[in-house]
Amino acid sequence: MKKIVITGAGNGIGKATAKACVEAGYYVIAADKDKAGLRDLQSKIAVHQLETHVADFSRPSVYKEFISRLYGVYNHRALHGLINNAGIYHGKSVNEYSDREIDEIWKVNLKSLVYLSRDFAQQELNAPHTRNIINITSVAGEVGSMDALYGATKAGVIGLTKANAWNFAPRIRVNAVSPALIRNTSIHDRIPEHRRKEYERQEVLKDPIEPEGVADVIMFLLSDHSRHLTGKVIAVDNGAYPR
Fold first, then answer.
1. Which of 6, 31, 139, 158 has the fewest CB atoms within 10 Å of its CB?
2. For 39-80, what is each residue's pLDDT tens digit?
3. What's the pTM?
4. How is the beta sheet containing 81-84 ordered, strand by strand?
């Protein structure tokens, strides 16, 4: 089975994507600091299709070594894809951030992606078949956010995606998915109510977006159906925020 690494796999989009990957016949390497979320994932997926790793991607010792340990300690000889989904959202003004929180969101939302993507690419640049990196950014990285740190890091993810599409071509394709208001995620409940209502007002398609809807787009990017796409940002936003 082709092996897919998914960070932030313990809930929301990451968990939905892990399930979709397994249904498509992939072997999933799921990483998250959420132990309970990983246990729940284990209860829903057969052991021969899943392995889990408790990993806090705010720690340099984790994100600088995670990929190399998969190839070394865990003896994976090849990985087909990397889905960088782990992220933090506080939903508050930059004036309310502590120094610790600024450092943490920078590391989890952007800096860890630099190392994970680079290390994956170094291992797979000479792979016989195309590999994929898919970064989860946000509409906040495109049109701005009341949470300046979240918006800034997600804008950085878009820049990193486009740059690495050039850096890692032609063997590795790098694309991003840009979700808007996604229900049933940990982030959704942190968005201030007045902001949620404004996001909903701008949606021109009224079928609420669930994590599974984002997973569908990720699966498209993993597949050969998207073989001509790299460096792209695909919005999953019910047609909101024309741009």
1. 158
2. 999 999 999 999 999 999 999 999 999 999 999 999 999 999
3. 0.96
4. 50-54, 27-32, 3-7, 81-84, 131-136, 172-179, 233-236
Mean per-residue pLDDT, 182-186: 89
Q: How far apart are CA 205 and CA 195, in angstroms?
A: 18
57 phi and psi, to 5 degrees?
A: -80, 15
Identify the sign of the CA torsion 53, 55, 15, 13.
negative
Spatial CB neighbours of 123, under 8 Å, sequence gap ≥ 6? 67, 68, 71, 79
pLDDT tens column, 101-146: 999 999 999 999 999 999 999 999 999 999 999 999 999 999 988 8
The DSSP secondary structure of 170-188, one letter per residue, reads TTEEEEEEEE-SBSSSTTG
Distance between CA atoms of residues 57 and 178, nearest Å = 20
Burial of 57 (0-12, 13-18, 19+ CB in 10 A): buried
82 CB-near residues (< 8 Å, 6+ apart) = 4, 5, 67, 116, 117, 120, 132, 133, 134
196 has a pLDDT exceeding 90: no
Residue 113: CB partners within 8 Å, gap ≥ 6? 84, 135, 157, 160
Q: Is the pLDDT of residue 228 over 90?
A: yes
